[in-house]
Every structure is written in C-alpha cells, then in structure tokens.
Design goal:
The protein is of the alpha/beta class. Helix content is 39%, strand content 11%.
Length: 235
C-alpha cells in the first residue's frame, strides 16, 4: 500500500498552484486527460521501497515519477521531506529488526544485487530500499542533511543503463528517473534470487506513457506560443 498521509495536503497544494483540482486524477496526480492509472499494475516484489520525495518533486514537478513508482510497487511508501534525520517514520523503519535497510545510491562501496555479501547480510530479513526522489543536486543535499541515511549501506546497479527521459535534461545519460531506477533494481534483484518473480513490465510502460504525454503537451504549448499575438513595426 502507498503511504497516503500527504494526499489531502498534496491536493490542496496542487489546487493552489494550478487551480485545476477538479481536473486532476486523485490517484496518479496527473490531469484526467492524461491519467496514467490504466497502465499502472501493482507488483509484489517482496522488497519494500520507501520513496523519500523532495517537496519540489511533490508540489512543483510535472514530470516526476516517484508517485507512479509507489503505485507500481506493493508495500511502497512516499515520505516527503528534505532532512530525514528526525523523521519518526523513517527512524521507525530503520529500527525495525525485520528489515535490512539500504540506500539506493552510487558509491565505490555500494552493494550490487549479485554481491554475495548482500545475501549474507540480508539473511532472513526483508530488503528495505530507500530511494531519494529529486534532481541530482536535490538528492545529494537530502543525503548530506540526513545523518541517518548516511549511515546506511548503499545499493547500486550491476549493469549500466541509459535513461529514456527524452524530454528532460539530466547531468548524464546514466542518470535515471525514479521509476527507471526501481525497475532496473527489481530486475537485477530478481535475477539474483532476492526479489520475487513478479511481473514489473508495467513500470517501463507507464513511464513511456508519461514521456509520450509530456512531449505532446510540450508540442501543444509551443504551437500555442507560435500562434500568439503578432507585433508589426510600422513606418
């Protein structure tokens, strides 16, 4: 289940900034005309994902994928904030002995799904993956401020991937969206026998629909701008 504590607050903020609350889908927070819910299929991977979402992603980012990621993965939760050092929910999860918590973040000391030591450390516990949802500068700031996250072992990818975020400029082609990161991680964990063999094929599908809708929207916006008022210089 997605952590929906912030739903009403999110909707009120969306209405304040857009004025189109009645035209929004309350589940995926996209315009009803571009609702992504028909493409979202919840998968039980046996891994618990916590999406640590920066407020800018929650309230201002039209192209963020954190919410559709949470809707796609059973038992996932969204927690909004910047510094999670004193966050009650995060610290409760970190202190729960039934979980083995890791931070999805690159590093030379990071585990990968095929690391033998990961399975040893995991034992019979459930893998708990914290995912920082924000632009790279924002994500780095969130980790820098959150002392409890800094203490976590890191988990990264075995393979290299290139993002399909075709309309959004990233620092590097290997900088993935949140939904791409979680999808590729689940696939690697499945190959390693850590995650359940659940069908997560809807994740890249819903992402492709998001990209498609955004590109259409951008094209329409440019067309409107191109047909704006014409100014003539008179002699």
């Amino acid at each position: 289940m997605v952590f929906l504590h912030h739903n009403h607050f999110l909707l009120s903020i969306l209405f304040r900034y857009t004025g189109i609350m009645s035209e929004m889908c309350y589940r995926c927070f996209k315009p009803k005309s571009n609702c992504l819910c028909p493409y979202i299929k919840e998968a039980d991977t046996g891994v618990k994902f916590i999406i640590l979402m920066h407020p800018k992603e929650a309230f201002h980012q039209r192209t963020g994928t954190g919410r559709i990621t949470a809707l796609s993965l059973k038992e996932s939760e969204i927690i909004i904030g910047v510094d999670f050092t004193q966050d009650t929910k995060v610290n409760a999860l970190l202190s729960d002995p039934s979980y083995f918590p890791v931070l999805l973040y690159p590093g030379v000391d990071a585990y990968t799904a095929d690391s033998p030591s990961l399975k040893i450390e995991l034992g019979t516990r459930k893998l708990l993956v914290f995912v920082v949802d924000g632009t790279w500068p924002l994500a780095a700031k969130m980790v820098r401020l959150s002392k409890n996250l800094q203490k976590l072992p890191k988990l990264s990818f075995t393979k290299g991937y290139v993002s399909n975020y075709t309309f959004k400029r990233e620092p590097e082609p290997s900088c993935l969206s949140t939904i791409e990161s979680c999808y590729y991680l689940v696939k690697e964990l499945q190959e390693a026998g850590i995650a359940k063999t659940a069908d997560v094929s809807s994740m890249p599908l819903v992402f492709s629909k998001l990209v498609e809708h955004q590109m259409e929207s951008d094209t329409e916006s440019r067309a409107v701008e191109g047909n704006g008022p014409q100014h003539r210089v008179t002699k």
